[in-house]
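User: Some background: our group keeps a shared notebook of sequences we're curious about, and every so often someone picks one and asks for a predicted structure to add to the entry. Today it's my turn. The entry only has the sequence so far, pasted here. Could you supply the structure so I can complete it?
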Amino acid sequence: MKNWLLVTLLITLLAACGGTSSTQAPPQAETEEEAPAETTGEQAATGDSLAVDPALLSDELYFFNWSDYIDPQILEDFEAEYGVRVVQDLYDSNEAMLPKIRAGNSGYDIVVPSDYAVEVMILEGLLAPLDKVLLPNMQYLNEDLLNMYYDPENTYSVPYFWGTTGIAYNSKFFETPPTTLAAIFEPENLEAIDGRFTVLDDPRETPATALLYLGEDINTTNEDVLQQAEALLTQQKPYVSAYDSANQGLKLATEEIMLAHTYSGSAGQAIVGIDDEPANPNLVYIIPEEGGVIWQDNLAIVADSPNKYTAHVFINYLMRPDVAARNTDYVLYLTPNTAVRDLLAEATIAVFEAGVEPTEEQMQRLQWIERNEQTDTLYTDLWTRVISQ
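Assistant: Of course. Here's the predicted structure to add to the notebook entry:
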């Protein structure tokens, strides 16, 4: 865990997943040429110093994104402003996204990999280097969220949203609010919630909770410790109604479940509602006493994208302060954009201050998931054994 980074991040960060899905594989388009940017008065007025050449834009852009991770209106506004239709497909884990990009000729232009997945994609040559000249709105990004371990000079990625993984619960059903991971691992506690409980379907996030409960490093390769974590997850499994990374927010809001191991932003969406989904103000998000996971999702361009110029324009657009603020109000994850705090809705700030945005003390208890060939094998095998039982 990088404690020095986490403390600095909290002190300096002005904090701040959506969209429609296409069911057809996107077609390939003709490759564009890139052009230098220049500033005009109109761009400066919006805080955007990129002058876009319409002649270089593609007609369509293919965006592979997490569900509920962009305001659909932003896609419509981008098309209205630039004449580019953004076609969005969705995934619910890095492990679901990676094979499609690895296969090549996916047709996707932009993906949103999490921190460790960026590192994997760089090593496998799956991402295109970014042209920073075409990304002047990087000026608004928190410097403490740049140059991270997985992309030290942001050669291939820029931060999109960040957050934590913890526990969300419905306060109506708990006389004593849960504060520790005992709520999701001790049989007597799980029996009390009668199967109304979900866990993330993720080979790193879910074993991480077991390791945190055991007081261990979430990136350990100690096989004796991993066996203990596997035993704990196996003991927990009969009480889990679903391993679910996509629908937890809705299930929490409708009270189909009363407790979830989930992402901070998913909890935020369930508290205030998103699109036509219900809101439930009885929900509370916490980082357990044992700690949690901190992560960052990133915008990156696929190496074989035929629309790289347009992809840069779209990424730059998403970093424009007014756009980033509207997007944050929708997705309710924490933004790396330092220029948006005063632009956020009061409801967004209230949700952040109620627990979605970690405190300085909580930041000290968060760990980053790091990945290499050894951990890939160990954790994938562990998770396969757990879910196949």
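Suggested note for the entry: The radius of gyration is 21 Å. Confidence is low (pLDDT under 50) at residues 1-42.
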